[in-house]
From TrEMBL:
Keywords: Cell cycle, Cell division, Membrane. It comes from Cryobacterium flavum. InterPro entries: Beta-lactam/transpept (IPR050515), Beta-lactam/transpept-like (IPR012338), PBP_dimer (IPR005311), PBP_dimer_sf (IPR036138), PCN-bd_Tpept (IPR001460). Residues 1-19 have a biased composition (Low complexity). Its main location: membrane. This is Cell division protein FtsI (Penicillin-binding protein 3). Residues 69-210 form the Penicillin-binding protein dimerisation domain. The lineage of its organism: Bacteria, Bacillati, Actinomycetota, Actinomycetes, Micrococcales.
């Protein structure tokens, strides 16, 4: 009690201490108010006065835009087999400005990893050197001291991606990058085309069907921290990516492989400069296979050195067809009614018509009494001239145009060659006759196949079709081509021409090389001189065979062209290819063997 009283009495008796305490309290309160006032002023300045400008600046620092790639559409065969597709690859990126040392836990201890050590680790994962990574960083920073983006590696597979991610380097990132692949290698590579390293279509269907295949990229943003590291879960897609459509072709990839292999083997065996083979559905005009030799693997375009071998000559290169074209002249003569299968002419070795032209056959012979059948069996130029001159030049020109000569087919293939068919008023005396037997004009391999399709299909020419259409994500098909046929010949004339071609198949000197047991076949060989590039002819020949089967109910057309086969420069070069391909086609599609016997037409009179 006495102690408490003493203290109380002391406090009451010391007024100086009391006033000092009150002053300290007052000063403290004033200081607090001053600090609060400063904070309030600064807060108003930040949130009101400078709000707009600071917001703009901060967004640039924390929000990062990134492309979201759409997937390019597939190119598929008629059965849905993928010929060209897209697989996911990845770009490894980094933030150069944030490329600084960082801590990593190793054996329970925090270890500092230098930029040089991190670069070496990245290089080991991506197949580069550490110095190369450091150079990428320094180059980016030299260009922009605040550089926040640079590529480390592009289009790597998932194994490389995971290897880099497992390093847990805070200033490295990744982005999806769809890449083009061709699962079947060189199969149909001549038609597919390819893309540049930047993804730009360069040739073939990739180029011609780009409007269908092309995707639309989207955009997403994400937030990053002060250290430049992406904040997990911060992605926001502002624009969705749209995948491309799928191009559905008429090609049968299994048959395409067989045709390519068969053609390449024969071309190499005969020392050919190049060769083509076309398989066409006789009823629909759909291309089932189009092979070229040499050809290209779109996965390795650089492996095909000659640029001319990276596409399809069947579409883009025309040539004088030679004697396979005689079927068109014969059909025109029969359709117009100026001659019948019984009409006879005298075919000399050399024919000098009144207009001053000079026509001769490939071998010397006495005058021969021939029917139209005999002319085609013997492949007589003079005999065909005697029949062809029964029509006017304009009539023959009109028939040729109706068959599609001089005009690109309906496939829409890039840079397709329509051939050369000059107007009648530009023909000289020799051209007037040469066009009767496949010279003085040029055709593509597709056009020759289309000529035989027209004859096989009772005289109705179908549009040549390579693409069924563009299949959208919901399964609907757009850009479906017109499949309306056009009558070129009467059914009677077409069937009579078919009968003549059957006789050619049976009586030709290469009959043993193209015989297909169990089926009636209509076919014709051809031999044409090749141009020398100087307005004349070289010593080389283009040898060919075109035909269809079964002749009693035509289903399929096969046309083979071999250019300058130096080891066998005759129709014996393509005949075995025709036989092998047509046999495979008939077997694959289970064509019914022929029942009725082939016609027996007189070749002489």
């Amino acid at each position: 009690m006495s102690v408490r009283n003493t203290r109380s009495s002391s406090a009451r008796n010391n007024p100086t201490n009391s006033r000092s305490s009150r002053r300290r309290t007052l000063v403290t309160i004033l200081v607090l108010f001053a600090v609060i006032a400063v904070f309030l002023v600064r807060l108003v300045d930040i949130q009101v006065v400078q709000a707009d400008s600071l917001t703009k600046d901060s967004v640039g620092n924390r929000s990062v835009g990134q492309v979201v790639y759409g997937s390019r559409g597939e190119i598929v065969d008629t059965n849905g087999v993928v010929l060209a597709g897209t697989v996911m690859r990845y770009n490894i990126t980094m933030s150069p400005v944030n490329a600084t040392p960082f801590k990593r836990t190793v054996d329970g201890k925090k270890v500092e990893i230098s930029v040089a050590d991190a670069a070496a680790e990245i290089g080991a994962a991506t197949g580069q050197t550490g110095d190369a990574i450091l150079l990428t960083i320094s180059t980016a920073l030299e260009a922009n001291a605040e550089a926040n983006f640079a590529y480390i590696a592009q289009k790597v597979d998932v194994d490389v991606l995971r290897a880099v991610q497992n390093l847990h380097i805070p200033w490295t990132y990744s982005e999806n990058s769809p890449s083009r692949v061709y699962p079947n290698g060189a199969v149909a590579g001549n038609m597919l085309g390819y893309l540049s390293g930047e993804g730009v279509p360069q040739a073939g269907l990739e180029s011609g069907q780009h409007a269908c295949l092309a995707s639309t990229n989207g955009k997403e943003t994400y937030e990053k921290g002060a250290d430049g590291v992406r904040i997990p879960g911060s992605s926001v897609t502002s624009t969705a990516a749209v995948d491309g459509g799928d191009v559905v072709t008429t090609i049968d990839s299994d048959l395409q492989w067989f045709v390519q292999q068969t053609l390449a083997a024969r071309a190499q065996e005969t020392g050919a400069a190049w060769a083509t083979a076309v398989v066409l559905d006789a009823k629909t005009g759909k291309l089932l296979a189009v092979a070229d030799y040499p050809s290209v693997d779109p996965n390795n375009v650089g492996g095909t050195e000659n640029p001319e071998d990276r596409g399809s000559r069947a579409f883009t290169q025309s040539f004088e067809p030679g004697s396979t074209f005689k079927a068109l002249t014969a059909a025109s003569v029969l359709d117009s009614g100026v001659a019948t299968l019984q009409t006879g002419i005298v075919a000399p070795y050399r024919y000098l018509p009144a207009n001053g032209a000079n026509i001769n056959d490939s071998h010397s012979h006495p005058d021969q009494n021939m029917t139209l059948t005999g002319v085609l069996i013997d492949s007589s130029n003079t005999g065909m001239s005697k029949f062809g001159e029964k029509l006017t030049d304009q009539q023959r020109y009109d028939y040729m145009k109706a068959f599609g000569v001089g005009t690109p087919t309906e496939t829409g293939f890039p840079r397709e060659d329509g051939g050369i068919l000059h107007p009648v008023d530009e023909w000289d005396n020799q051209t007037s006759y040469a066009t009767m037997f496949g010279q003085g004009l040029t055709t593509s391999a597709l056009q020759v196949a289309s000529i035989y399709q027209t004859i096989a299909n009772d005289g109705v020419r179908m549009p040549v079709q390579l693409v069924e259409g563009c299949r959208q994500a919901d399964g609907t098909m757009t850009n479906v081509p017109d499949a309306t046929g056009t009558r070129v010949l009467s059914e009677t004339a077409a069937n009579e021409t078919s009968d003549v071609l059957e006789m050619v198949y049976q009586k030709s000197w290469v009959q043993s090389k193209w015989n297909i047991p169990g089926y009636r076949v209509a076919a014709k060989t051809g031999t044409a001189q090749m141009p020398d590039g100087k307005g004349g002819y070289s010593n080389g020949y283009l040898v060919s065979v075109s035909g269809f089967a079964p002749a009693d109910d035509p289903q399929y057309v096969v046309s083979v062209n071999i250019a300058d086969p130096v080891k066998l420069n005759t129709s014996a070069a393509p005949a075995p290819v025709f036989q092998e391909i047509m046999s495979q086609v008939l077997k694959k599609y289970r064509a019914v063997p022929s029942g009725a016997t082939a016609p027996d037409l007189p070749s002489t009179w």
